[in-house]
Amino acid sequence: MAWDWTTTRVTVTGGAGFLGSVVCRKLQERGCKQIDVPRRAEYDLTREADVARMYETLAPDVVIHLAAEVGGIEANRRHPGRFFYANMAMGLHLIEHARRRKIRKFVCVGTVCAYPRITPVPFREDDLWNGYPEETNAPYGIAKKSLFVMLDAYHRQYQLPSAVVVPTNLYGPGDNFDPTTSHVIPALIRRFVQATQANQSTVTCWGTGSASRDFLYVDDAADGVLAATERMEYPIPINLGTGQEIEIQQLAATIAAIIGFSGSVQWNPNKPDGQPRRRLDLTRATVLLNWRAATTLNDGILRTIDWYRQHPLQPVDSPSVVIH
Fold this sequence. Notes:
Blueprint: E1 9-13, H1 18-29, E2 34-36, H2 48-58, E3 62-65, H3 73-78, H4 80-101, E4 105-109, H5 138-158, E5 162-167, E6 169-171, H6 184-197, E7 202-206, E8 212-213, E9 215-217, H7 218-231, E10 237-240, E11 246-247, H8 248-259, E12 264-268, H9 283-289, H10 297-310
Parallel strand pairs: 1-2, 1-3, 3-4, 4-5, 5-10, 6-9, 7-12
Antiparallel strand pairs: 8-11
């Protein structure tokens, strides 16, 4: 059956954020006229009373849960307790009150950080449960993975319709370029643009550069989220990625070349690489969602660089270190 968005009232937690703003735009393009984005100033989703009030006031048919407290390696190292609590509390209250309200569907967007540190490549969804995540982001990853279990239990006991997607590393226009919390692609773009403007001869990056990642353009991720909303009724985790991986060292060289940075790139092996490899198996996404990423990495990086150049952050006095 085709999904009729024109008559569906949707609440998008995190709808003002990086992925959320694109999901909201694509909902509008599909004809959705009732999109609510709860803001933290009005609804603190870590507090059950605020979540209950949100459901009462907004009365959603569908909740797409994108809100998260997250950052790069350094942010995860500094705030492990907060990242666990905030992400666990938000999901816990939102799912419980979705059950009480008997909403039409709850969609949970998880994280590739939920996978065990050592996972056979390509990552298959059944491997989510076969080990402990990379230690630097384990509290965040486990909090998000716990929500998968909760949704499965609620589907079996209460018949709560739901969907779960597990996107890999996202990037694109509108990404977070803050030097203390950004992920690898925006961090590299920021450093190389600023180094070029300042005529620096060297940029220093964290780790060895040998780790690899599967990067997904934000518009493709949003299409995957909405495909899961339209097609899924039970919370089997579904990977969203490109099925391709690139080493961070090669990624840095690619971004430097596009920007025109002609200096050298040095690596600091005393800083962590994070999970050694990430590349996702996309069989479920292909079969269950009829979804596949459409944007090549080079095209996506070009669009992201163009966006950053039009929306630059002010330079900061900090070491030439990239967080990823």
